[in-house]
Write a structure and sequence with these properties.
Layout lengths: L1 H9 L5 H11 L14 E9 L9 E10 L2 E2 L5 E4 L8 H7 L3 H5 L4 H12 L4 E3 L2 H16 L7 E3 H8 L10 H7 L10 H21 L5 H17 L2
Parallel strand pairs: 1-5, 5-6
Antiparallel strand pairs: 1-2, 2-3, 2-4
Helix pairs in contact: 2-5, 5-6, 7-9, 7-10
Length: 235
């Protein structure tokens, strides 16, 4: 697959300034995943898309919030709508509430994605059912930047049941986990609002992880990955 990624990358002709920004991001150092989980920087990510088909649907919006040393950086969140050549369907707009005019007037996709890369740096990324977010961002990144976008992700949909086996049988989704920890979501299916709820869940799970002796970012990632493997093996 790497040869295909290189081939796709070669087909994107970015302006010089955009190429320099992308090269600067690539040159950033990778995080030390042995760092203490409670002291590290994460970026919680949520996306809105034109639908749920990973092959044909498009990335519409990205919301992200940094979590640094167990504090959510509410004063520096990231929220962007990517300009769409054609608006998504009316039914889809009813879900995320990003209307046709907002989609048509969004930020040029390459610029939006560069801004996103500069916001996240090389920090580990966090999501709820994060493979969907990862694939949607990677598709857009390959198309508009020629960048394969391979990052470290921690999926709270897997980390939560791994750490909270007592609660897991009753939980069906993010809303249930949020309710279990007293987390309110002021605008469900808004990318930034969902990222805020997910960031609060991350902090609650980090505290639970510490109680169980998991202290590094790598241990959190490994616990989530192990739970994902277990759930796949049960299917």
């Amino acid at each position: 697959m790497k040869w295909m990624e290189r081939l796709l990358a070669g087909r994107v002709a970015l302006p010089g300034a955009a190429r320099e920004r992308l090269h600067a991001w690539r040159a950033l150092p990778e995080p030390d995943l042995k760092a203490a989980a409670l002291d590290a920087r994460y970026v919680v990510v949520d996306v809105e898309s034109s639908g749920l088909d990973l092959r044909s649907d498009r990335l519409i919006a990205i919301g992200a919030l940094a979590v640094e040393s167990s504090r959510i950086a509410l004063d520096s969140g990231f929220d962007v709508v990517l300009r769409q050549e054609a608006a998504s369907t009316d039914d889809n707009i009813l879900v995320h509430r990003i209307g046709g005019s907002a989609q048509a007037g969004g930020v040029e996709p390459a610029e939006a994605l560069l801004e996103f890369l500069e916001y996240i740096g090389k920090s580990p990324l966090v999501g709820y059912h994060s493979p969907f977010d990862e694939i949607m961002i990677a598709k857009a990144s390959r198309r508009y930047l020629g960048e394969p976008f391979r990052r470290t992700w921690i999926d709270l949909a897997c980390l939560a049941p791994a750490l909270c086996t007592d609660l897991a049988p009753k939980m069906k989704g993010l809303d249930d986990w949020s309710g279990a920890f007293g987390i309110a979501n002021f605008a469900r299916h808004n990318a930034l609002a969902d990222a805020l709820a997910t960031a609060q869940l991350l902090l609650a799970l980090c505290a639970r992880a510490t109680e169980k002796g998991l202290r590094s970012q790598r241990e959190l990632r490994d616990a989530a990955d192990s739970q994902a493997w277990l759930e796949r093996s049960r299917r």
